[in-house]
């Protein structure tokens, strides 16, 4: 399966913004690993916005 460049940029920007990791570190991850971090960050943000 291939992923669009736009989607990869969104994932990288999201992880970099929240964790302040370098571009190289984020791009070195397998897509599934990077996507897991995206989902975990989203869950954290959801809990925080709900007061949890």
Would you identify the regions where 5 or more consecutive residues have pLDDT less than 50? none
**Structural class designation:** mainly alpha
What portion of residues belong to β-strands? under 5%
Order of helices and strands: HHH
Radius of gyration: 12 Å
Could you give the count of β-strands? 0
Give a short account of the largest sheet.
Answer: none
Q: What would you call the shape?
A: globular
Helix content percent band: over 70%
Mean pLDDT: 92
Write structural notes for this entry.
- It is a single chain.
- The chain is an all-alpha fold.
- Helix content is 75%, strand content 0%.
- The protein contains three helices and no strands.
- The chain starts with a helix and ends with a helix.
- The mean pLDDT is 92.
